[in-house]
Amino acid sequence: MNTIESRLEELGISLPVAAAPAANYVSYVLSGNLLHLSGQLPMENGKLAVTGLVGKDVDVPGARRAAELCAINLLAQAQAALGDLTRIKRVVKIQGFVASTPEFTEQHLVINGASDLLVAVLGDAGRHARAAVGMAALPLNAAVEIDAIMEIA
């Protein structure tokens, strides 16, 4: 059986408890058939797992892992919002922000970590439009932050 749960299990992923907002915002907004998810950081076991600037403190494989963690946390938020990931009809768009040095130009390779994970878990429903943008800095010195818009049933 090729379900979302079985794919997560095959990938060795257990979704964490969705993180609570750290300021005056909500983790998600459900508007009509769209779920807007606030930016997620590369949290793992309750701690920020990847910090610093990509191109200086973090290499591309490490930053790609940070993007995967962001995608896992997006799925955790979707689970909290919807109660059931099978309600996701389509990941419409993700926006990936990469804290990087001015000369680093491979943000797209970093955000591939999130894109590939979403497709691995959700199949065709995980295919999405996206942006991959370099930033001078991100909250808490995170290397990557990603938000998402999902169409839901």
From TrEMBL:
InterPro entries per record: Endoribo_LPSP/chorism_mut-like, RutC-like_sf
The superkingdom listed in its UniProt entry is: Bacteria
The family database entries (Pfam families) matched by this protein are listed as: YjgF_endoribonc
Q: Which SUPFAM superfamilies match?
A: YjgF-like
- The species is Allorhizobium borbori
Report what the protein is called.
Enamine deaminase RidA (YjgF/YER057c/UK114 family)
Please state every residue range assigned to the domain named Endoribonuclease L-PSP/chorismate mutase-like. 5-144
